[in-house]
Design brief:
- The protein is an alpha/beta fold.
- The chain has 6 helices and 13 strands.
- Bound molecules: ribulose-5-phosphate (5RP).
- The site of ribulose-5-phosphate has 18 residues, from α2 and α4.
- It is an enzyme of class 5 (isomerase).
- Catalyzes the reversible conversion of ribose-5-phosphate to ribulose 5-phosphate.
């Protein structure tokens, strides 16, 4: 099975978690795109969706799924999204697509974070995937120095601007022993908007697509 087929399997399994009549929080990326396409098959049974990026909003709207502004939503049973890495405690690195800030905000409103991944994303220790950090542009050099002092190798994501008008610094060479503590440390650097560690609030459910089928962790 190809990696895309595995992503699709995990994504379609997440449809089992959708609460009829509810507003669904929707992530960003290729796995989330498979989820959006699956959600379209049951669009008449949901109220609509909140998107975590302009790209996902466009795809949802293309399927005729009603979009809600997060500020008009006070309750959302589930948020469904992929990840770049996920560990045994269901802490994640996200933001490979650069949507980490809105992803973290939408996920914060949801009761449950359902993570959909192919098996390559499961790791023992987070950090092999470079940690994305969204930064206010004028703070680029200052933040890069602080990230280097924490032991990483900061690399500017060239030619990329987030949906919020900021830049992304990808931090290479990390081995993150305590993801929640490191998330707090990086968020504490002046000029950082968000970092791609989702550890203080990790996933509640992982749907991991393997060659043998989709395995559920919770
Ligand atoms: C985007 C993300 C994505 O969830 C992450 O990059 C995984 O992407 P994909 O499903 O394409 O492998 O965090 O900001």
């Amino acid at each position: 099975m190809t990696q895309d087929e595995l992503k699709q399997q995990a994504a379609l399994r997440a449809l089992d978690y959708i609460v009829e009549g509810s507003i669904v929080g929707v992530g960003t990326g290729s796995t989330a795109n498979f989820f959006i396409d699956g959600l379209a098959t049951m669009k008449d049974r949901i109220a609509g969706a909140v998107a975590s990026s302009e790209a996902s909003a466009k795809r949802l709207a293309g399927h005729g799924i009603r979009l809600f502004d997060l500020n008009d939503v006070d309750q959302m049973p589930v948020y469904v999204d992929g990840a770049d890495e996920i560990d045994a405690s269901l802490a994640m690195i996200k933001g490979g697509g650069g949507a980490l800030t809105r992803e973290k905000i939408v996920a914060a409103v949801a009761d449950k974070f359902i993570c959909i991944c192919d098996a390559t994303k499961r790791v023992e220790c987070l950090g092999r995937f470079p940690l994305p950090v969204e930064v206010i542009p004028m703070a680029r050099a200052q933040v890069a120095r602080q990230l280097a002092a924490l032991g990483g190798r900061p690399v500017l994501r060239e030619g990329f601007v987030t949906d919020n008008g900021n830049i992304i610094i990808d931090v290479h060479g990390l081995q993150i022993a305590d993801p929640a503590a490191f998330e707090t440390t990086v968020d504490g650097i002046v000029g950082v908007v968000t970092n791609g560690l989702f550890a203080r609030r990790g996933a509640d459910v992982l749907l991991l697509a393997t060659a043998g089928g989709v395995v559920t962790y919770e």
